[in-house]
Design goal:
The protein has 224 residues and is an alpha/beta fold. The protein has a single domain (6-11, 50-223), classed as Glucose Oxidase, domain 1 (3-Layer(bba) Sandwich). The protein is 11% helix and 25% strand. It contains 4 helices and 13 strands. It has helices spanning 74-77, 97-100, 133-141, 173-179, and strands at 6-8, 29-34, 43-47, 55-57, 78-80, 82-85, 94-95, 108-112, 130-131, 146-149, 184-187, 202-207, 215-223. The strands form 3 sheets. Strands 1, 4, 5, 6, 8, 10, 11, 12 and 13 form a 9-stranded mixed beta sheet that branches. Strands 2-3 form a two-stranded antiparallel sheet. A two-stranded parallel sheet has the order 7-9. The N and C termini lie close together (11 Å).
Amino acid sequence: MKFKKIIDLTHPIEEGMITFECDWHPRTSIQQLGRLEQEGRESRKVEIGTHTGTHVDAPLHFIKDGATIDQTSPDILMGEVSIVDFSHLKEDEEVTVDMLKEIKVTERMIFRYGWGKHWGTRKFYHHYPHMSAEAAKYLVKKGLKMHASDIPSPDDSRIKLDSTTKGTDKDSPIHKIFLSNDVVLVEYLANLDKVKELDGWHIVACPLKIKGSDGAPARVFLFK
């Protein structure tokens, strides 16, 4: 089968790439092991976190005894997808239910905020638009199964992760609304600026099948 258009929505995994700002998230390291001149083959050792670069969150990421990434059905990870352009939203602006009532909610949705322009800088993790709790609950009620976006999180970036918030209801509440309802999250999408027409797309999100994991880096494509 030949497709008219394919767009790769994946940021490359590379040494020194930006990662989430916390003390438990590893920095990306890529070391050469095998060399053609000596071992007769090329091979590398790659050290990354499960939420490095473009990746998929499974419910276990925030939900005790939640489904793992290897339990995520391919039926959710591939199929028709709706693309919503929210690139007009301001920094820290909240997506509301009223905004969502203007669009058709489908099983798989990409929310484009135009935030990919900040990839590679610390700005990427700060002041992006985000979902309100009411909007997230509305999407769940309407049957959403995949929430994908070019921002690092559907949560408000101004929520500080410190000893008073980590592990409480104030920590990543939007993640918890989605994941507790088995909505998979596809985060850090790239190249959404290359999508000129919003209709008629299919998505494939292929996370590494890491047994028992809370998420995994993924290769993500749009095609039509």
